[in-house]
Write a structure and sequence with these properties.
single chain, 345 residues, alpha+beta, 6-stranded antiparallel sheet
Length: 345
């Protein structure tokens, strides 16, 4: 598609979405997008433009920044190439355009620049599209929890939880730098476990039943029983319990465990960089199941990937209807479980 053709598509998409005839365009409803594409095709002369190209550019115009001009040609070409490589079947490719555009707009397959408002940045509407993709699984989980967990609220804010999970999918880790004289303290208390870096005003409270997870560059974990050397890339899982805090360090198939009683403290010494996992599930599958960057579109649709991320992997050897249901053993492996555990549920 040429720049002039892309400009024509963009102008029509903007006019369509602003039209009073359009009520509640829903990114998560494929029929809404199909109707928009048909409107574009019927009213514009785009002979020679392939259907997948048209749908990709239309999706970019729906999701992209409002005042940044047309989608850049290199981005249009990159997204179309990714789509074509991932989905060889022409008809299925047309049906899956929106999920690819949402993921691309959120930063998958490209390096997102800091800031906002440009095509090189994260696209706000794409983020909202990811939130929308998460909402059905969050809503289903809340209904299930309300019927199985005493006291769980009937009216929990689905969109707010979906937004938190979307942020964790997009930004699965956040760095925390410790300088030479700085330390992180891990303290077991009557109410859970406290992680603190006093010099940076960093504090994380981990209630009983919840976890904190991070990887660390080479450092030391100091406890009253001695010192545990933290190899570069070691994973640290801090699990809060009613009467203790258990810290497990794993690296290169090695494992060290430290238990703190109420009132005891362990410290991690700087200089070091900790990469705090936003999803604190902490198991070996987290990096492949709970990060947008890990989504493999050749294996499953984005909608299935995020639903599995929220509710946990589908149980094995179940019929198709059962795969859509929530199962306790699977739910605790999803990324919604640790979010709720951090709130004390």
């Amino acid at each position: 598609m040429t720049d002039d053709e892309a400009r024509t598509v963009q102008q029509h998409v903007e006019g369509y979405l602003r039209s009073g005839a359009v009520h509640g365009f829903d990114i998560g409803n494929p029929k809404h997008f199909d109707k928009l594409v048909e409107q574009v095709k019927s009213r514009l002369s785009l002979a020679g433009v392939a259907d997948d190209d048209l749908r990709a550019v239309t999706a970019m115009c729906v999701l992209g920044p409002e005042f940044a001009g047309i989608p850049p040609s290199d981005m249009r070409e990159e997204l179309l190439n990714i789509l074509q490589r991932s989905v060889p079947d022409a008809q299925k490719r047309l049906e899956r355009v929106m999920e690819f555009a949402i993921a691309y707009g959120c930063g998958k397959w490209r390096t997102v620049q800091e800031g906002n408002g440009g095509w090189e940045h994260q696209w706000g509407e794409a983020v909202r599209g990811l939130v929308r993709a998460l909402e059905p699984a969050v809503n289903q989980s809340n209904r299930w929890l309300a019927s199985h967990v005493v006291g769980f609220p009937q009216d929990r804010d689905v969109r707010s939880d979906a937004h938190l999970l979307a942020m964790r999918l997009k930004h699965p880790e956040s760095p925390l730098h410790l300088d030479q004289e700085e330390t992180m303290s891990i303290t077991c208390t009557d109410d859970g476990t406290e992680l603190r870096v006093s010099s940076q005003n960093y504090e994380q409270s981990v209630p009983p039943g919840a976890k904190a997870v991070f990887t660390v560059t080479q450092s030391e974990l100091r406890v009253s029983q001695g010192v545990v050397l933290l190899a570069n890339g070691a994973k640290v899982i801090v699990t809060a319990r009613d009467d203790e805090a258990r810290t497990v360090v794993t690296w290169n198939k090695q494992r060290e465990e430290v238990r703190l009683r109420v009132g005891e403290t362990a410290t991690i010494a700087g200089p070091a960089t900790l990469r705090i996992w936003e999803c604190s599930r902490g198991n070996v599958h987290c990096s492949g199941r709970h990060r947008l960057e890990a989504w493999d579109p050749t294996q499953m649709e984005l909608w299935a990937f995020v639903a599995s991320a929220v509710k946990g992997p589908p149980p094995q050897n179940r019929n198709h209807a059962r795969l859509r249901q929530i199962v306790t053993g699977s739910f605790v492996q999803g990324m919604y479980f640790p979010l709720l555990a951090q709130e004390g549920w």
